[in-house]
Amino acid sequence: MAAQIQASSSPSPHPPKSIKSISRSPALTSIPPAYIFPSSPPHPAADQSAPVGQIPTIDFSPLLSSSPDRRSGTVADLRAACRDWGFFVVTNHGVPDGLIAAMIEAGRKFFEMAEEEKEEYRGGEKGVLEPIRCGTSFNSSVEKVFCWKDFLKAFVHPVFHSPSKPPGFRRSSSQVLEEYSKRTREVARELLRGISESIGLEPDHIAKKLDLEQGMFQLLAANFYPPCPQPELAMGMAPHSDHCLLTLLTQNGIDGLQVQHHGNWVDVTNLSPNSFLVNVGDQLEVGLINQWRFIHSFIRI
């Protein structure tokens, strides 16, 4: 397995503001030492015998069906996917293709802004609890090795927050972010109902136990991975598990994600732009289910 990002008492003295600005430097021919992961090679090799592209696919529509037989089949598929993989692809989820495309475009507009315009969203006294924040890597204030990515994160539920930049963003893209957040939240809630049912509990057991109506928060995150002159030495994101209930991921058609399955790393390839890759998070695995494994993923660039 590749080296994890390590916390250190002596982090890099000058954390970068943006990997975008570094990647677009005309003089860049090799990556700075702070981005080189201390293993050779840093990327786990995908197991060629693993069922690449065979991550379970869940048809979401039967979960909304009035037919018990249709729903029960999907519930059984959910149980197997969570137990055996911890990841699955969701299709026919009802979130419009145009909304997903508009969400990706909104993220692109934000990352294209000049770094000075993003300054108000960096740092802050609340740290990771800032309603809106952007930065680079994962936590560049303590990291010894940086990931090759920039990010934007905003809390969108129970209170919706959206950047006001670039000019006009709040009037146009903010509406996209809010609608996208609402629709994906509805998908996540129904998936949690199906997962709850799949382990022999009432469909609303997870929602009631965690008080999702009042106590749930939703974080919207956009990641930007610019071209890298030495991708074999860097990582977009080191191996990790997600500290949440569920993650719903969409991407712009560029592969790079790998997930761990039975000790092997499997490429996630050809993920349709109108589907979601769902990751079962630590809170669900440990706090409620306690019968599934920690599942790791990482991003190669």
TrEMBL record:
Residues 215-301 form the Fe2OG dioxygenase domain. Residues 1-24, 33-52 are annotated as: Disordered. It holds the Pfam family 2OG-FeII_Oxy. GO terms for molecular function: L-ascorbic acid binding; metal ion binding; oxidoreductase activity. InterPro entries: DIOX_N (IPR026992), IPNS-like_FE2OG_OXY (IPR044861), IPNS-like_sf (IPR027443), Oxoglu/Fe-dep_dioxygenase_dom (IPR005123), Plant_2OG-oxidoreductases (IPR050295). It comes from the Eukaryota. Keywords: Iron, Metal-binding, Oxidoreductase, Vitamin C. Belongs to the iron/ascorbate-dependent oxidoreductase family. PANTHER family: OXOGLUTARATE/IRON-DEPENDENT DIOXYGENASE. This is Fe2OG dioxygenase domain-containing protein. It comes from Linum tenue.
